[in-house]
Write a structure and sequence with these properties.
The chain has a 9-stranded antiparallel β-sheet, with no helix packed on it. With about 300 residues, it is mainly β. The protein contains no helices and 23 strands.
Length: about 300
């Protein structure tokens, strides 16, 4: 959310009275509130509530890109196409890692337009969007992080109430966990939205959770869009399962990112009623990036 304050000079109006004719001539001085171009700007008082330099007033030149002025997050806020608006937002975020936008830039590359963002703090994260007319938007990303993690990858936000189901090419129809990957078949699957809780409700297969070996997925009722990947090892995170009311421990409540639409390279394991995941063997341990070797990925978002 932004609050912008600008001191506006009053229009100075001069009147010339010509007594002999009774005619009044009016001269007006015009001041452009937002300037005319990058070389002719106007200073504005600027305030941002999230991201870099949040909670403080500063001056920026207008017109300009305020994220290039040291403000903001670099995340998508909303998507619009010829059919209307889509509520995809809040990403891409490096799942489970606190980071700050360090650099933001955009530029023309032939007929395409490129937007890049660089993040740092707990690990590194580089994002590159390429937009070209008539083609899906391409997202390229690279990240590295230190220490053990329940999951690794990137996430976005999408309102749960606007999701009616999903169709995808990957392993299905059931969700998976890090230590329970076997048994799912590669194919094109479809699931209607449900909020099923294993052992408490009986609508299967469960809709929410991690899904293995994603190639593409179509979703939402606003204006269906498709996301493609060229890496079959990507896991799709679809929302977050609801905790069972009768669960007395977190053994069967695996960790999920804050975002509810994720494209992950590693996911969390699950335990049993009596044992935590960590007690169930090597495949049930947390994830670790050996030697902090960066992971790279590409996604194509077809909003057409």
């Amino acid at each position: 959310m932004m609050h912008i304050g600008q001191r506006i000079s009053l229009l100075l109006t001069g009147f010339l009275c010509v007594a002999s004719t009774g005619v009044f001539a009016q001269a007006t001085i015009v001041q452009y509130l937002s300037g005319t171009d990058k070389d002719h700007t106007v200073p504005w008082d600027f305030y941002c509530t999230k991201g870099r330099k949040s909670g403080q007033w500063d001056k920026i030149a207008v017109p300009s890109n305020w994220e290039q002025q040291g403000f903001g997050t670099g995340y998508i806020q909303q998507v619009a196409n010829a059919k209307g608006e889509l509520s995809l937002s809040g990403g891409p975020v490096l799942a489970g890692v606190k980071q700050t936008l360090r650099q933001f830039r955009h530029y023309a590359a032939g007929a395409a337009h490129v937007v890049e963002a660089e993040y740092a703090d707990d690990g590194s994260f580089h994002v590159k969007w390429t937009f070209a007319s008539g083609k899906p938007a391409r997202l390229e990303y690279q990240y590295s992080q230190k220490g053990e993690a329940d999951f690794m990858g990137i996430t976005f936000n999408y309102p749960e109430e606007k999701i009616t189901g999903m169709k995808w090419l990957g392993r299905g129809p059931y969700r998976v966990w890090k230590n329970r990957l076997k048994g799912q078949q590669l194919g094109v699957w479809h699931k209607a939205y449900n909020n099923s809780i294993t052992g408490e409700t009986w609508q299967y297969p469960e809709f929410k959770g991690y899904h293995a070996d994603l190639y593409w997925v179509v979703e939402n009722k606003e204006s269906p869009f498709t996301v493609y990947t060229d890496d079959q090892s990507v896991f799709l995170q679809m929302l977050k399962p609801v905790r069972a009311a009768a669960a007395r421990t977190d053994n069967t409540v695996p960790a999920f990112p804050e975002g509810n639409l994720g494209f992950l390279n590693a996911i969390a394991p699950i335990g049993t009623k009596f044992q935590s995941a960590a007690a169930l063997g090597p495949q049930s341990q947390e994830n670790l990036m050996l030697n902090y070797t960066p992971i790279s990925g590409s996604l194509w978002f077809d909003f057409r």
